[in-house]
């Protein structure tokens, strides 16, 4: 493959393809929400052997006209942990979809993408000065906002632990300035947003830094060897202990930083990723949507993005695209997707009349009666409209279609939302990762969103808070959210040492060191007062991967 069209690609990836002898046409996504690629290529007189779009972290742009090209089309999803809710539909327009996150591969396949593969992000061939010559003992670059309290808590911990050492905390740096800082720092503490393997790991390793990252398990440890090329922490205590150790051992940080950089140069550069992309593209099977199906999946993607507020189109334009697809109700699965998208965009638009008409039509004629998505969305739309009987009718329709035994008898909106939440959780739809759900604007589409909608009216409904915490507990990256729910629960149930322990563990995972240790001591005191020392020790051991929490308690 000699001629490649790259859309929104980093310059380093373009250079890597050129190093491999490819002729590259690099296009920036259109300032408009849609880029007619077939027209653009005709204007440029460029006939590619491969088209590849790299998800942009800036303004969003959807490519149209891919169905008219006779070369492979590849999509590389950079932030699938945040944007999987629209990536799945968009992937249908491509033959091959790549995900930087291995855990997101199943999510991208849910809407029918045939070929989805793991392709991590890459590092850079950066210079790496000796650690003795570096000005900063530790450095962190990242946005500190109210939406990311755990990051602020981590920075406070760094500032306390690095007293007497040189610590740099920066926001808003250009990429070049950030890399300059990393080349002048020994240790890069790292934190993920939702348990993802992030850019900071590769960038810090590229500069020969010791990256001290959250423990994320096998995916991260496949890329870099823990204890040799980087290190991990499970909570604030472990971060505190390891940071203290590494600050005192510059020779050790240099050895690990050098090993990390060597791993980048051996396996994780843009050139490695470009070779893999070309290899996969040669074997790519034509599987993308074409013709009217391509228009449909473009419209569904645009609708999901409009609902999430990540594309510059109005609700009216999103609805017009859905209406213009000419979707046949006989193609039941696709029509169900369109019906759900229409209701969700109408909810965002806030015009109750059109939403009521859509909902009534779906209910009155029994359309898509066996579709879990239509029944859920119809039920949520009915609740928004204050029509509880209709909301309950969609639930019973779902119960019949799914053959659910003991479906419950919801007699209030709260009871109905709880039943839907439990049903969605059983079907694996716990969260819509990355979606900024607002119960006043959006219709719930996951178990957690159903419970958040319930809490919007009853913010201290304790059974719901307990259920919500139980659903979130196994999921990575949500400790900061759990701290809020657990804090309310412990205020109402002050003698429950298990709740106090869960709050302590969530606080420590979210880098609230002092608060977490205080909460941990309180949990032990409560357990002892009830004669449950042994039970407390066993419960603590489950959440104490390093044993350091027990050591801090003196247990």
Summarize the structure.
The protein is an alpha/beta fold and 555 residues long.
What does the main sheet amount to? 6 strands, parallel
Number of discrete helical segments: 25
The radius of gyration over CA amounts to 26 Å
Number of separate strands: 13
Straight-line distance between termini: 63 Å
Bin the helical content.
40-55%
Mean of residue pLDDT? 94
Widest sheet: strand ordering: 2-1-4-6-7-8
Beta percentage is 5-15%
The 3D shape can be described as flat
Residue runs with pLDDT of under 50 for 5 or more positions: none
Alpha-beta content class: alpha/beta
Could you explain the architecture of this structure?
53% of the residues lie in helices and 10% in strands. The longest helix is centred in the middle third of the chain and has 18 residues, at 250-267. The protein is flat and about 70 Å long. It has helices at 11-19, 37-44, 80-90, 105-109, 149-161, 175-183, 199-206, 218-223, 236-247, 250-267, 270-282, 292-308, 315-323, 332-349, 352-364, 372-384, 388-402, 413-426, 447-457, 462-472, 479-492, 497-509, 513-529, 533-543, 548-553, and strands at residues 3-7, 23-27, 34-36, 50-54, 62-64, 73-77, 96-99, 116-118, 136-141, 167-170, 185-189, 210-214, 231-233. The mean pLDDT is 94. A six-stranded parallel sheet has the order 2-1-4-6-7-8. The protein has a five-stranded parallel sheet with strand order 10-9-11-12-13, with helices on both faces. By secondary structure, it is α/β, with parallel strands linked by helices. It has 25 helices and 13 strands. Helix 3 runs antiparallel to helix 12 and helix 12 runs antiparallel to helix 13 (315-323).
